[in-house]
Amino acid sequence: MKTHALDPVGVDVSDARIQDLTDDRIDEVRHLAAEHGVVVFRDQEIDDTAFEEFLRRLGAPVFTQGETPVDGHPDLNVITNAGRTTAPTSTFHVDTSYVADPPAYTALRAVTVPESGGQTLFSNQYRAWDTLPEDLRADLSTRTMTHVVTGLDLPDDAETSAEHPVVTVHPITGRSSLFLSTPKRCAAISGLSADETAETVARLYEHSTADENVHRHSWRPGDVVLWDNRCVMHRADHSGVVGERTMHRGMATDGRLTAAPHAPR
C-alpha cells in the first residue's frame, strides 16, 4: 500500500480497495492504525455490506446502544445533519469508553459530503502523553479514570461506567498513550478529590486538543476513515457546514486495552 504520513497524526492510503485487502494487508492496516492513529482510504466504491465486512476483519462488531442504526445494517449507525434545524454538537472524545471493553477501532464511510465544512478532527494521544511534564506523567501512571455515559437514553441493563488506566500501552506498538475522553465522561480519577479530578481532566483535555496536536480531515466523496481509539480522540466540526453531511459509522473491538506497566490492573 502506498502511504503518506499526515501531521501530527494519521496516514493517507492512496492505492487500496478495502474490499480487496488480503489478510496480510488487513494486518498491515492494524499496524498503520496503531502507529499513526488514523488511516484515510480515498476513492472507495463500497456499500454498507462491504464496509461491515471490513470492520469484522478487524475485530468483533460493536454498536453503541442509544444510537440510530442504519436501515438493514444494525451494526452500523447514522451520523447526519439531514432534517435537523440546529447543527449537531461534538467535542473531542473516545467512542464508548464507558464500557469495560471499549471499541479498538471506529470507521466512518462518507455517504454524503457537504459542499463545505464538516471536517473531522483527530488528536494524537501518544504525543499528548509524551509532551506532558515528567512529574505529571509519573503521578498519572499509577492512576485510573472512571468513564461514564452521557447524552444517551440507555436501557436499565446497559453498561454506563467503566474504570480504565489514565495511561495505556498500545498492544501493537508498545507506546504509551493518554486515554482520555470528553470531560463530562471523565467522572473520577483514583486518589483525587472531585475538584482535583476536574482540574486535572481540564488540564489534560486542553493539552491533548491543542492545535499543534490535531489533524483536520476534510472529507471527499468515497472516503473511508479508520482510527484507533486507543491512541486518538476525535470530534466533528459542525460549524459552517453547507449542505448535507451524512456518515455511516461502524466500530470493532479486539479486547485489548492494555494498562501501563505500573498502573493498577
From TrEMBL:
<dbReference type="InterPro" id="IPR051323">
    <property type="entry name" value="AtsK-like"/>
</dbReference>
<dbReference type="InterPro" id="IPR042098">
    <property type="entry name" value="TauD-like_sf"/>
</dbReference>
<protein>
    <submittedName>
        <fullName>TauD/TfdA family dioxygenase</fullName>
    </submittedName>
</protein>
<feature type="domain" description="TauD/TfdA-like">
    <location>
        <begin position="12"/>
        <end position="251"/>
    </location>
</feature>
<keyword id="KW-0560">Oxidoreductase</keyword>
<comment type="similarity">
    <text>Belongs to the TfdA dioxygenase family.</text>
</comment>
<keyword id="KW-0408">Iron</keyword>
<keyword id="KW-0479">Metal-binding</keyword>
<dbReference type="InterPro" id="IPR003819">
    <property type="entry name" value="TauD/TfdA-like"/>
</dbReference>
<dbReference type="GO" id="GO:0051213">
    <property type="term" value="F:dioxygenase activity"/>
</dbReference>
<dbReference type="Pfam" id="PF02668">
    <property type="entry name" value="TauD"/>
</dbReference>
<keyword id="KW-0223">Dioxygenase</keyword>
